[in-house]
Write a structure and sequence with these properties.
5 helices, two-stranded antiparallel ribbon
């Protein structure tokens, strides 16, 4: 039951993030100071992760993807907090400075991924 709740919660969180970024794509891209292709790649990866969370894929696979995304997001936010660089984050379509609140959302994706990884450890490989 817990893995399903985590998966659906993760899917909703990522879908809200994707919709927010897509709605204000130009502002999102500018906040990252990257080319369109880079910002679009982030959007696509998040959207695919949301779809994966709703698919019948094993918890382990969803957890692996969420852990990767969460690690990347949390690492960037941790670095910015550590060096005092509080750039604007448009992670959910709303401009806000990097803070412990934005860090917590990134860490939530990481935590969801870890929960899913730990609910199905290595059993994915039994049939190989």
């Amino acid at each position: 039951m817990i893995p399903l709740l985590v998966r659906y919660g993760l899917a909703v969180l990522l879908a809200v993030a994707v919709l927010g970024k897509a709605r204000r794509f130009t502002a999102f891209r500018r906040s990252l100071a990257m080319p369109v292709a880079g910002a679009l790649a982030i959007l696509i990866v998040e959207a695919l992760a949301a779809v994966l969370a709703l698919s019948p894929a094993p918890h382990f696979l969803v957890g692996l993807v969420a852990t990767g995304l969460g690690t990347a997001f949390t690492a960037v936010q941790t670095y910015q907090l550590a060096v005092g660089e509080r750039s604007v984050c448009l992670c959910f379509g709303k401009a806000e400075r990097v803070s412990w609140r934005t860090w917590a959302r990134a860490a939530l994706v990481l935590a969801a991924g870890l929960v899913l990884l730990l609910t199905q450890p290595l059993t994915v490989f039994d049939g190989l």
